[in-house]
Known about the structure:
Structural class: alpha/beta
Strand order of the largest sheet: 4-3-5-2-1-6-10-11-9
CATH class: Alpha Beta
Number of strands: 11
CATH architecture: 3-Layer(aba) Sandwich
Largest sheet: 9 strands, mixed
Order of helices and strands: EHEHHEEHEHEEEEHHEHE
Distance between the termini: 32 Å
Shape: globular
Low-confidence stretches: none
Helix content: 25-40%
Number of domains: 1
Amino acid sequence: MAVPKYKRVLLKLGGESLAGQGGFGISPSMAEDVATKVKAVKNYEVEVAIVLGAGNLWRGKDGLSHGMERATADHMGMIATVMNALALQDALERQGIVTRVQTAIEMRAIAEPYIRLRAIRHLEKGRVVIFGAGTGNPFFTTDSAGSLRAIEIEADVLIKATKVDGVYDSDPMKNPKAKKFTTLSYDDVLHKELAVMDATAIVLCKEQNMPLRIFNLNNEGDLSRVVLDKSIGTSVVPGGKK
Length: 242
């Protein structure tokens, strides 16, 4: 068996990874597909934690455009991430992977409250831990939650799943001549305003030297290849070179 580079990873997924037709709702088959990819990583005895977004269920900017208060819109988004977490937990459990959901907003009837040392203990026992409800605070994105949780659980790397195979200098969907970066520094990302994660998330990673890997979740096998440190996607590290 190939030897993974990382012992403990945090996987940041957008809500779209579970979306149904048209990019909305929760598709059980999509959840099963993600679970299969996570199981492949678990087969290498890698400890896996996950943070999910909620773009498939709720986008706060839609509420804001109608005058909704930002805090209200953000709290609705946090609750939506828990729905996604439960859907993915169910898909993982049905594939024989013991999973725990922890939430930053207490919902004891359906999930554990987030407790850092308990989360680490679950990981050490081989369980997948899904962190729901973001940071528990409005004005912070799930990208920031991903960075924060990765640092708190002392993950070896934060892996960001996207719909493209790395970071480009412009949108590769619109510009066929877009240049792909293989390696970047945190400062590169901030100064070039590259669409990797929001600035708060990048600054958190920079301050704590948390490496990032960005890859395309839709490419079959690429999540496992990232864990095995194959040359795919884009890496963001201290002092990285383009």
